[in-house]
Every structure is written in C-alpha cells, then in structure tokens.
Model the fold of this input.
Amino acid sequence: MELKRVPVSVYAEMTPNPAVMKFVANKMLVQVDSIEFKNIDEATPSPLAQKLFHFPFVKEVFLSGNYVSISKYNIVEWEEVTQEIRQFITDFISGGGVVLDESKLSASASDDQTDAATSPAETFDNLGEVEKRIVEILEEYVKPAVAQDGGNIKFIGYANKVVSVQLQGACSGCPSSTMTLKSGILNLMKSMLPTLVEDVEAVNG
Done:
C-alpha cells in the first residue's frame, strides 16, 4: 500500500514577547523536551538552527515539540521577515532536513545542552519531597501554558522557601515574564504549597 506523504505546513504565531515569534509545524520536530541555542556555535547539533542563525536578525533559537521559537535582534520588524522565515522552515522540513541530531547532542553537548535535553524523569528521583511536588506543579500546570506562548520553564532549585526556575524561548526576556512569575506561578505555588514557598525567581531574569 502506498503511503501518501502529508505536506508540511508551518504557521507563525505571535507570543507575549514582542521579540519572539513562534513557528508551528504540523508534525513533531524534536523528541527531546526542549533545547535552546543562543548562537551558531551552540547550534552544532541542529542543522535547522544553524541555518536560521545565518539570518542576521536571528538572536536565539528554541526548539520544542512541533515548534520553533525565534528571538530576533531589534533591527527588523516581524512583519518584514515572518513570511520569509516561515517559508524557509517549511522548505527545510519538506526537503528532509535534520532539525536536531540527537546523537551529536549526546556525544558533543556541553553541560548546558545536556541539561536541556535531559528528560525531567531522569533527575526527578534525586529530588526531595518538596522539590518533587514543585516539579509536578510546574509540569502539570505551568509548562503547558508557557508552551502555548512558545517558551519553556525548567526547575533549577529550591532553598529558603524560594523556587528558582529558568525561563527559555519566548519566556526569556519577555516583558510580561516577571508578572507571570510573581502573580501567576508564585500564587499557584503558595496555594498548593502553603508555608513552603514564599517566592519564585528566574535565574536568567
């Protein structure tokens, strides 16, 4: 039986961060939870990210699930370049381009990249009871929401009733991320872990 090849389609989606646009495909692009590249040198495991960095306005590339979030320098407006990027990603995927070479990731990744590609389940067992509950809350309630906005949140640590997280993708450097942390995530943590959490902070601002 001949299998019909499903045409690749990609659409662009605005995020709360005006510097970041989310490009969503109709197929899964990566199997890892998420990974972020801040420059072309970091992007060795991802041929797609490397080619995207050839666009002079591309600042950072974030991959997760079926989408790519691109952070730009403030030298162009999104309406000037969105169609070009959307078409480029569509052509790259349609042509069989490799989005992420996971073997190269594990073989030559730095500690940061290894962390980025590590499944939460692999480190979950090493956490204390409070930390495990915090991770569960982030995974169940927070991650789906920030993924919708083209970003990701990672648990970094818990000490002195303060939860430390890392913001990635569209969430990193987003003007509204502080409000999200303080009014959204902090209130959620306080309601679900009363007396145990007093603040939430992002290690990357």
Notes: Strands lie at 10-14, 20-25, 35-37, 58-64, 67-72, 151-159, 162-169, 199-202. Residues 107-121 have pLDDT under 50 and may be disordered. The first strand starts at residue 10 and ends at 14.
